[in-house]
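Posted in: Structural Biology > Protein-Ligand Complexes

Title: Requesting predicted complex, S-adenosylmethionine in pocket

I'd be grateful if someone could produce the 3D structure tokens for the following input. Sequence and ligand are given below.
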Amino acid sequence: MTQGGSSVAEVRALLAALVATKPQGRVAECGTAVGEGATAIVGALAPGATFVTVEPDPERFAIARRALAGTRAEVLNGSWQQLLPARAPFDLIFLDGGVSDDTVDLAIDLLAPGGILVKDDLTPGIPVEGDPVREALLRTPRLIGAELLARADMAVIIATRRA
Ligand SMILES: C[S@@+](CC[C@H](N)C(=O)[O-])C[C@H]1O[C@@H](n2cnc3c(N)ncnc32)[C@H](O)[C@@H]1O
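-- Reply #1 --
Done. Output follows.
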């Protein structure tokens, strides 16, 4: 799993397509890094939608804030676990930093009913059972999820919170 790298182009295209389904949506990204995923999201944001992205690393945060200056992205420095609950609920969350089986439940708490959660950076071909993050996303009754290949070497999970 990447720690500070940017999302791949296929995932950014997927995010843009999903963001466009939420014209009044509240969109959040956990882990801005240098803002490449956020740039794709903000480019697909409808006029009625909002977007907040959170990054704890001060250098990456500074780069992202510059890259996203003048856009409608709200770029925050800190951890999403601390900063996003006050801004919830969200209609779409890109869960791309600070993810563990322990934090998935909090991310689901932050979703509105019908809200979508996207998790990338998964190694393809790993069974759900025995993989804590996959189990947390795909075996919870709170979500209806699917794992897809974004490209040959990367799987993503897209999961919707039950209404
Ligand atoms: C894979 S990178 C994010 C890439 C970015 N989303 C993109 O699409 O270009 C993961 C980022 O998550 C950040 N991160 C780690 N723990 C975090 C937390 N608790 N809250 C928010 N971000 C976190 C890391 O510092 C790192 O920059």
